[in-house]
Amino acid sequence: MKFNESDVLQSLPKQFFADLVKKVSAKIATGADVINLGQGNPDQPTPDFIVEAMQKATADPANHKYSQFRGDPKLRQAAADFYKREYGVDLDPDKEVAILGGSKIGLVELPFAILDPGDTMILPDPGYPDYLSGVALAKVKMEKIKLNKENGFLPDYASLDPEVVKKAKLIYLNYPNNPTGAVASPDFFARTVKFARDNNIAVCQDFAYGAIGFDGKKPISFLQTPGAKEVGIEMYTFSKTYNMAGWRVGFAVGNADMIKAINLIQDHLFVSIFPAIQKAAIAALNSDQSSVRKLVALYEKRRNQFFAAARKIGWEPYPSGGSFYAWMPVPKGYTSQSFSDLLLDKAAVAVAPGNGFGSAGEGFVRIGLLIDEPRFTEACQRIAKLNLF
Ligand code: PLP
Fold first, then answer.
1. Residue 139 per-residue DSSP state
2. Is the pLDDT of residue 174 over 90?
3. Within 6 Å (CB) of ligand 1, which residues are found?
């Protein structure tokens, strides 16, 4: 028998970066010493105290059973305590926190949880490509809001067609931003609350890089904005803050109706996550956060070193305030794709072409600072030899 994928599955977007992975693997197979700056996978290990908490919890048979459907109440409490301590935000752990198996699942399932087929949602361009999967699975319509250098890679709500604003029911934001490294200001979040309230649009702020802010400036949470909880939620992940990308744990916080919808869909799709992972996650949130400060210092050092190396060859970065990415312009005469292909081909340096994040990403490439300094300085030296700048 032959089985076909459903129409919905066939409508899923093509994984743009699968092509990049293929090209990099093919280059490595030729024996080239590829410096891979194309990825977004944290390179540092999970802090020991979290691994130890997991080891202890794994040995306890109480953690071998099904988790409670909506996760360990102690983890929800730890998330609420964390938001209070870090951001001064009050959360009801039962009504305003949902445990997620990583934030990707929350971001993908949210449109399905709160929209109906044919509804409209707004996504940032450039933006994290996995948002598109949620659009396809929920069969909703998508409109893009352009982020550009002139607006500091923050959406200008006035740029939206009024007809789109009238129809839209949900908007996604992501600060600190992947791929640009831009950070949000309190003013911008205040404008967002007003825009959402005035137009009845729910907000989902993806805070994946929330821990990673530079120059002594801690990224602000959307929920710190007066009125934010009335209009939206924030997605938080352990993947970047604690180098726990493979563990698959995160949470959504904020608006009780949106959290309830997420919990409801998850009741039908999952039985929460492995209880031992939840115990380790509690240890992470309740810790003194010194591991996070150390990690941020490392990323800031790498950013400074990379920016210095790039400027030395005449390659001027967009000034990143957070995340572990550098958003770099493409030299004249190239597109994001042709420049990325050239770097891989002639310098054995892999970067992510900006158009993979949306059409507004054209003209840029994204560099992940997830290797140690000698390698990205070497990458810049190899690129210098191409005499492009
Ligand atoms: N949001 C953004 C902007 C990301 O870059 C990522 C991962 O790279 C995620 C969400 C997903 O993170 P996770 O599913 O590991 O929590």
1. T
2. yes
3. 40, 102-104, 107, 128, 174, 178, 206, 208, 237, 239, 245, 250
